Amino acid sequence: MRGTFGLLLLMALAGCTSVNVAQVPSIRDRRDVFVSTGDVKGPYQSLGVVQTTRRGVLLFGFADPAGTDLESGLRESLLPEVRRLGGDGIMNVRFQQTQYPVPTRILFALLFFIPLPSEVTLSGEVVKLGPGAAPPSAGTPSR
Amino acid sequence: MKLPLLLPVLLCVGCSAVSHGSKLSDRPPEGGRGLYLSTGGSPRPYRTLGFAQVLGYGVTVAGYSDVGDAAIDGVIKKSLVDTALRMGGDGVINIEFEDENPPTGVERAAELSESISNVARGNGGVKVRDRNVIVTGEVIQFISSQP
User: Fold this and answer.
1) If you write DSSP's letter for every residue of B39-50 in order, what string do you get?
2) ipTM, 2 dp
3) Chain A interface includes B46 (CB < 8 A)
4) Beta carbons of B88 and B142 less than 8 angstroms apart
5) Residues B29, B38 contacting (CB under 8 angstroms)
């Protein structure tokens, strides 16, 4: 009885918001590719569109051995594709990750024999910047 | 007995699928021939003619063969362009696309294996996976920058 109450209290305190973030390569590092959800102002050459999808399961509600979060999708799938295509960066990026609120994760940590399906998808247009063009966020540091 | 242990391991294997489409329009556009296509904005003043959403449907048979029109390139370069031309557009901007159910390498292998197994045992057919590619965009017509 006390255990059930404790579990319910824990799930109530955990809240119902789930947050996922991914950090992009620094714009000061000109050797790396840029990533932006916006458009490039200035000339560029389109190299094609690309979509990467990573699919796996969450074990015990929290463990993500397949790397199906935004950070992994960006670093391990999307950025390698941009580099492979020879792009300076990728613009108009759209992204979506399967999210579960913490109470659901706790529930499936208890139901550990049922894995949670998880997926992350990122897409965008790979471009090579023309003369004089700058990455979308250059010159406007976000921090 | 080993299957329950093997299954979680297989499910945890990193499964990644990559869908490509060929290049869209450069900025500034080269030569002015063909429709201007971009995931971004327009390089010139324009007026909006409307919006278009195109669905490319297909199937992946036995995890190996992709049949139908569920390819990003075909949907953008053929269906979307045809639609924009019918609307009298000069281009499509703010293009968004989604390959909804791309099979990962592991899934392709599993479906091929299951299909071969089914056919060999004579029960059931080959595995067929539905594929959808959805593309949306704003159809535009360029206008002269001169008043």
Assistant:
1) SS--SS-EEEEE
2) 0.82
3) no
4) no
5) no
